[in-house]
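Final report, section 2: Outcomes. Of the targets proposed, Beta-monoglucosyldiacylglycerol synthase is the one most frequently requested by collaborating groups, and we therefore present its record in full.
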Amino acid sequence: MKTSDEGSSQGGWIGATSGRHENLPIVGVVLILCLVAGLHLAFWSLLEPRATAAAVDGKLPSVSYNRFAKSSSANLEVPETRIRADLTAIAKQAKAVRTYGSTKGLERVPEIAAELGLAVTLGIWIDKDEARNEREIETALDLARRNSNVTRLVVGNETVFRREHTGAQIAAIVRRVKRDSPVPVATADHWKTFLDHPELVDAVDQVFAHIIPYWEGYSRKSAVKGSFALHDRLRAAYPGKKIVIGEFGWPSAGHNFERAVPGPFSQARLLRDFVAEANVLGIDYNIVEAIDQPEKLFEGNVGPYWGIFDASLRPKFAWTGPLVDADYWKAAFVAILIGSLFSLSVLALPGPTVSQAAVLAGADHLVGDWCAGVQIYWHDHYLLHGEVITFVIALPLLGLLAPIVLFRVRELTAVALGSKPTRLLNLSSPVLNARLPKVSVHVPAYREPPEMLLRTIDSVARLDYPDFECVVVINNTPDPAFWEPIERRCRQLGPRFKFVCVLNLEGFKAAALRVALAETVSDAEIIGVIDADYVVDPQWLKDLVPRFADPKVGLIQAPQDHRDGCRSSIHAAMNAEYAGFFDIGMVERNEVNAIIVHGTMCLIRRTAMDAAGGWSSDTICEDSDLGLTILELGWRAHYTNRRYGWGLLPQDYLAFKTQRARWAAGAVQIVKKHWRRFLPGGSLLDHDQKREFAFGWLSWFGSEIVAVAAALFNLIWMPFVVFQVVAIPDPLLLLPSIAAFLVSLLHFVSAYRTRVAVPYLQMFGAMVVFMSVQWTVASAAFRAAFPARETYFHRTRKGGSGIAHARFAAIPEAVFGALLVAGGLTVFLTNTYRLLGTDLFGAILIIQSLPFLSAVGVAGLELLSEARKYKSDPLD
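The predicted structure is given below as tokens.
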């Protein structure tokens, strides 16, 4: 018997998997894995970067050589040995070098360059330090007089553009240098500076204009043409004046700038095309720059990558012939190898379908691609300062995220693409001639409303089973108003119902269950446990106890369900969220005999319980602890998704969060207690059971801890990104977080539509409620990982007519959610040049705010609903 308010869910599935999915034999699985690996290889082959560009024969006319860093201390000088090694490499590729200063060791450049046959465009660094400016000018003039390979002097570098001096001031300095210089004198600045300051053009012998298409935001395809167009504008504005492109270049790595996307191939193609066309047009130019400068971070994370040589003086590309990536197939090998190794786990699945095996292997190979991306990044980038910190923190978090995502993909494919579950109890086929052993039903209670507990006891009395008893234990409840009505009802129901009231009992619920076990008749073979709020179906024992005819079965679990889901929209969402676990997660875990035992609606063989040591108080999830111990001893467990009992939902959202915190803390306690039994030989658990428990824990509280840690780290990192104090985060580290969110979203929606019979709106509510406890689970699990100073055990309030508190139930979540949203919006609004990495970082901050905002939304809706209720009925 079940009344209409006792829950409508019967465990029926909508869109359930059917027989159309055929299981593959092991040979078929191997063929699928080989096919996916072959497709992965073909994918890398199709995407191999090959390009042609104009051939450049001979040496470049000039390249920038700058070993002067703005962040260098005043006394730091470039060693002569370093200059000689640099110029020796450059001399093989260029006819001249341009320097940016004439002191701090760079005064040695003209002499060493002369020995190597290099001409020098000698720079004079000008800034706001007048004493230093004077040293630069005097040194440069002296070097020009003493070294015939100095062909011109360049006064300042973008000094007007940086607003360190006015155009008139630089013009005056240029005129002063010209009076004493034996060679032509110019000043170097952004091309538009010369259009805006004709006084500079009047003062110089040559216009030394910086035309850098990357900083103009040009795409690679339009960069060369656009740069020559800017050169033509200068030539048209100042006819008769020599126009030199003082800087032209493109970075080989780093962030995008508007439409400009750096990369090794784009750098090579663009420079070769530019040089070839400039040579034909007879344009004088200087390539920026000769050698990568890893310390040049003031330009963001493109700063280190402008060189045509890397920091180790290796040429980045060839100037003739096809452009190829010599390390491409090394990365492909890493991707395919890791993907193939990961995909071997598909072989452990019991008869996967074709689509299931293919999708799982594909996901594994995508992880291999990401690992190859990390290897490429590590090889092609200079990890300095902020990038080192980012990688040190991000890679371990992403390393944990990968197995979590793969586990969710595995569960998703099992539900949506896999075969129909085979181990669910087939209740339509009764066990013939089965014994009906005596069952002792235990009902522990602590300060429970009497009317609720009376309804539970009455439902037990209606059980259609010939031989059972019921032991009701009320512990630590001194107020007679709570236990006297229960005692009277047990007396009225006869000797099968035992009532025990115990005060000052230590050990939480487990202690009460030990008391119940001590009061159990000696011939009871099966122990049934239900919570004090559960109304049970009369067929519960009659249907399930016969399954213990198999002597290897140690326990049988039926799902939790609730009869008050219609109380409010929040309670409906809570109920749907619970249903998801019992119709999805528990069904899949049951396939490998790895269910989680819950302390209600479970039946346990007494000998299995005794062998496992009974109820233990060293964790606060005594039910899951005992269930795992029973499985570790080699017993079988069974699960049915048919509902046989309906309890009450937590009274309010705070009670829901308190319950979830207790579960999370208890799970961590169980991990601490049982981890040694997961080692080889530590227990009778098989590989599948160990994997299911380990990844189940990781996917639940492990993923929440990782998510919260990542959110906190990104909040701390956000100001550094906004103010560009450190390098901009690379998409390589950002895309996995977005992918994980999308996989989780797809996993939730697909699994619910396949297995959980709830409307779309209720499914959405379940998703919001599920996300809303991220902080609760993460904080409880984190605290439980350390030596306990608190018990974490709090009774879950049930059965009340309203919320039992007046305060907002999501204050920490509101703070973190607001900070994440504010941070994300700040990142978006300050990203003037639409840097991809910055936009992705902002998107991740918004995504990470969703669980926190979900908690705020649920708590706020609860308070709003309560306020409306009291407003409509002020006397209630």
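The chain has 26 helices and 17 strands.
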